[in-house]
Design brief:
With 275 residues, the protein is an alpha+beta fold. It is built from 5 helices and 15 strands. The protein starts with 6 loop residues before the first helix and ends in a 17-residue tail after the last helix. The relative contact order is 0.19.
Amino acid sequence: MIIVKTNDQVELMRKSALLVSQTLATIAADLRPGVTTLSIDKKIGEYIHDHKAIPSFLNYHGYPFNSCISVNDVVVHGFPNTRELRENDIVTIDIGVILDGWHGDHAYTFAIGEPAREVLSLIRITKESLYKGIEKAVAGNRTGDIGFAIQEHTERKHGYGVVRELVGHGLGRSLHEDPQVPNYGKRGSGAKLREGIVIAIEPMINMGKKDVYTEADGWTVRTLDGKPSVHFEHDVCVRKGKADILSNYAPIEAAEEKNPYLYFANTAVTADTQQ
């Protein structure tokens, strides 16, 4: 069942989404070689609790951490661990919070140092595809319009692999609601988008083929060919004419740009679309 939110409920969800954004911005300031993903996860949990919220992911279907931290060929759901981040790693941090009963959930991929040019291109194009999808999140369209836009930009134009097993989703009082929002599809197909629906749009794009596998822990998803994967995610409310982005990459990008250990080259992507 697809749940349409009232304007008041959307504003509560915006607060949840913005807390995730601010958490990501705070963590972005500390990213550097030598930091362990487990220490990052601890800071994430502390920051969320300090702001009177609850980490959505912790104990969700048994997930044992505050966040998902996925490095290099890990697509999503990476377990924080004692491995230190290294020069030229790419790291995706995916965070969810529950604030006043409402969920916020989004992700951002960072580059430590200056990875190879083809990796930086994957980051840039995946981020661009997120906004291509958001442009289609308007009342009267369908989820297939979002998926088509993302797939067109990443797979058809650039030859990347669009992960099929994992998709975006509705968001609200539950972390995962209807509708599912694939990153591939046909225009005019899928669930119809109505004003007030809130969705998490999250392209997960592989440098190589689309195929993935899940490790023995039951959570960590990796690319089958071992090539890097990138994941960006925004919380979006469907509106007439133009989608309303509830989350905000601006503070994350500001922290990313100021951190000398991070490579930042994506300023043009959000210039006309970030709210």
